[in-house]
Queue: 4 jobs
Job 1
Amino acid sequence: MAKFGVFLKWLAGLTYVFVWDMLEKGSREQGDLIISKLYYLWQLIAAWPLVKNIITLRFKGALRSPFLYFGAFFVILGFSAFWQEPSSEAPRQSFSEKLFLSAPRSFMSESPKLLLVENSSLQASVPASIITPQALGVLLGTPYHEVARREIVEYVVAKGDTLSDIALAFNISEDTVRWVNDIEGSDLEPGQKLTILPVNGALHLVRPQDTLSEIALWYKADIKDIMVFNEITSESQIFAGDLLIIPDGIKPSSLPSPRSQPAKGTNFAYPVGSPVKITQGLHYYNAIDFGASCGSSVYASESGKVQRVGYDAVGGNYIRILHSGGIVTYYGHLAPVGILVSPGQSVGRGQLIGLVGATGAATGCHVHFEVRGAANPFAR
């Protein structure tokens, strides 16, 4: 029995060395409280032979032995811990998490990718984080089409789809789907791409010298609704090439002729270097995707003046250039450090304006190239 008691005390001490470190005061939560209490109960069992010897006076010189105080310490500590309530402090790292490697508690910035620019320098690139309406719907427990959105999305028609089904799924009217996609009848083809607005209404491509007052009049809409939805603070804040969502607007049978006509014979150059690779054909809005490696050069397709640069959730980092006749070209998904021009700057045909990236709603490195106000010459 004496040998067994010594063994238990030795085992308790060994357990103490390895486990005490993992049990911080106040860190025992619901799941770990049981583990910690069992641990201290084990200490009580280990100290029992010493306590029994003291009670029966079979341990000679017990008061002079350090084991007496060592055992008493475990007894007191064990009883105090056994009935201790969980701490009300903020949750700390749990016992089980300390035993094993666990995931970090906070989001950590990933190491940026390095982009080779013009084969002469490096730039850091960190992709933007995007949450889609579908993902947001899952998180909130609501269908994605019921989640408020402000962006225009593209829908690929599946076999058996009807206009009414699609309109109902996205909570918009059939007319809204018809107007934006120029659909006359009701037939849809599987694989057909449809532009879906976030609200009932119409879509207007701003032409040179169009005004908000005129646009509201043409579509029988409220100018304030147009400004609020498109985040416009003043009537002078629109530019040729802007795509405006007209909430509750009604598409007119025809629009007044634009005050300026697109230049005839416009010959756009490829916005990327050779070899040219088209990764997606014509899609919203009058766009072609050119595949290229991240960090490679993006060139102005035609001479003009830089109209806007910036970022949006879908197009990522973008550049817009205004050309003669009110035609606008758009270069999207540029690298985080890929905008190399500024608004108001004049650029020449083939001039370096940016760097290829994958910002915004992009699945890989490419340039989203749009032509607004004229046909896209690269459409197949």
Job 2
Amino acid sequence: MALKLGANSINKLYLGSTAINKAYLGAGILFSGGFSPADVFGATDIGLFNRIHPDNLFTDTNGTINATVGDAVAYIEDLSGNENHRIQATVSRRPTLQQDPNGAYKLVYDGVDDFIEVTYSGVISTPLSNVNVARKAPNMRMSIETTDTSSLRLSNETATDGTLTFYAKDGGGANSGAKGIPIPLEIEILILGTVWAQENSLYRINGVQNTGVFDPGSNSGTSGYRSAANNKNPPTDYTVLEEYGAIQIDRELTTEQFEKIEDYFRLEVGIAHSGVFSPASLFAGGQQGLLFKPER
């Protein structure tokens, strides 16, 4: 969904000598300033950035043969600079690259035995930020810790009724304040931002931050990233999932960084920006008045 001139992606737009940071076609983002989520990773930041696109997906575990639509994917390239590439060596357990009617690419997990993961070289500690992009559905696991070590459990998922559950406890069920969180009915593709802290954590749903915090339970961090399966080794339970992208980073992202990442994924998957407003819309019902914009 990137803006292109022929086969070439456009990374910068100008109006005269002024750089344009965002351009819209109706409510949809047409251009977002050439920003990449990889830009938020500093030299010491640990984590991963997965873009679901044939340029960054491979059918072999060495990351040399690019995937095309219909292929089983063995390797998801990490674009954060950390070399945390997600790999699935078993052919039958690989998700499939598919494409939406609007051109957005996604990885589809069958809910039978598909998953793909990376184990980091060490534990990354809270605060920890995630952005997960997936088609909204009940019973889907967006991100899961790769080991069943009790002190490292961390889980973003939906329940059977489609509500969100966040889990980071040593044992027992999810805390009451970290489950049953509704997703607005109009959302089809979920862009879920989370900041995991020891107790008080926050979440964002398609650019809208919650007014409070949730308590997922004590958690010291995570040692890896897995989609569509539980944290047992090997997994013992799997979920259907349509994944469009993911980020995990070992610090709290700023609101501005979240917004830029969310805009990037909106552009990638072709969904409208919920916050677009024009003063001209006040006159949509034929009301009389004046709209004046001074020159600067």
Job 3
Amino acid sequence: MSRWKGEWSVMEEKKRSEKGDMKCGSISAERLQADYERKPQPMKPVTVRLDDFRKNLNQVVAGSELPPFLLEMVLGEMLSAMSRVAETEREQDREAWERACAELGYEHSKESWRKDCKDGEVNG
């Protein structure tokens, strides 16, 4: 399905209304099916993503035409918020890991199983 400036083409709109346009949250079932059928794209390496991010951030900073002290303040607030999100994610990941270890019930002795789950991955 192609979109042009956020609008459906007349043909697509007719096709959607004929099918009844089943909704799944805010995403139509038709779109979910199209996403499922799409071939997986190669994943961009994290180093390339970081380079792209730096380039884009530099463009935004330069284009903002704000004085450095204001940029420092805004970016500082953003970094603080990201730090809080990262800490929450770490806590959730730890809880999920500990729950997974408890649910799996490895055949190891309880002492070695608890040690593995506490110290990190069991199989790696």
Job 4
Amino acid sequence: MLHSEAKTKSQRSIHTIMDNTCVIDTIEPQRSQFSDTFEVRRMLSRSHKESQHFIVTLQSDVKRAHDTEVVKPFAELAIRGDNLHFTVNPNKQYPDMRVNRKVLHMIECSIASFMEHHFHKTVSIGDKTGRYTRMMWVE
């Protein structure tokens, strides 16, 4: 099965989150936009730049999962070619939550920055209209 055909999960065990991912960024949107902190995590088993997979969790859900053993990812994203794609859609994971496009863009930018700095790979991300744009980072 190709990486792009792999099915994603709507739940992850706390052991997968704690043992097989690392936090690459935390995002704290304005409290008026969202009342929780996002943790952007990278799957440690993915070493090649073309097969990177990211899991975005809510910090409060990870803390709660120590009791329940299950984490419900806010979103999951994968690199496919030069594009960053949502493989687990936050609107489907949390249908009652009003997901702000600005927060999704912050998550995408965080991952694009990580890819550029750690893998020297430029990826395209969705802009506010859903179209893809190339992310170019200047230091």
